[in-house]
């Protein structure tokens, strides 16, 4: 595993508290938090894409059960599954210090895309680590309060 520049145990404790799920795989946890590109050529972007799709699936599942029209799902995604929402979430919970960035980015504000990708990558990491158990990832997303489906 690439040398993580921060305390991986502290990052694991943070992500566990955030999601209610303990990611067992060190490499997967590190990959979710790495935006430096030093660990993998695409940093956490592959996990982020995966996590974004998982979040959308969880939201679609909740929407479908309500029998609301299709437009309600579109509004839900626009209110919950956006980079702006993920940025606000990441800032609110204090995710920034756990993100592994390039040395040149240290001390600079974390961009919206970096924060959003990391939030989504954490969801992707939970999905893979839990053996793709929909109920576990749904519970993690609920714990993160990213399932704000209006009842």
TrEMBL record:
Protein's recorded name: RNase III domain-containing protein
InterPro entries reported in the protein's UniProt record: RNase_III_dom, RNase_III_sf
One family name in Pfam for this protein: Ribonuclease_3
Coiled-coil residue windows: none
Cited Gene3D superfamilies: Ribonuclease III domain
Residue stretches making up the RNase III domain: 20-131
Molecular-function GO terms, alphabetical: ribonuclease III activity
Alphabetized SMART domains for the sequence: RIBOc
Record-level GO BP terms: RNA processing
């Amino acid at each position: 595993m690439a040398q993580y520049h921060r305390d991986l145990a502290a990052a694991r404790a943070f992500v566990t508290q955030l999601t209610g799920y303990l990611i067992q795989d060190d490499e997967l946890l590190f990959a979710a938090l790495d935006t430096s590109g030093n660990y993998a050529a695409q940093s956490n972007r592959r996990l982020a894409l995966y996590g974004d799709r998982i979040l959308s699936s969880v939201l679609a599942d909740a929407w479908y059960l309500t029998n609301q029209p299709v437009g309600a799902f579109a509004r839900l995604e626009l209110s919950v599954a956006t980079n702006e929402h993920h940025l606000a979430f990441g800032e609110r919970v204090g995710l920034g210090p756990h993100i592994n960035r390039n040395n040149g980015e240290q001390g600079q504000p974390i961009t919206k895309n970096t924060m959003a990708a990391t939030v989504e990558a954490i969801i992707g990491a939970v999905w893979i680590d839990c053996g793709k158990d929909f109920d576990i990832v749904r519970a993690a997303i609920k714990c993160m309060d990213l399932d704000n489906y209006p009842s």
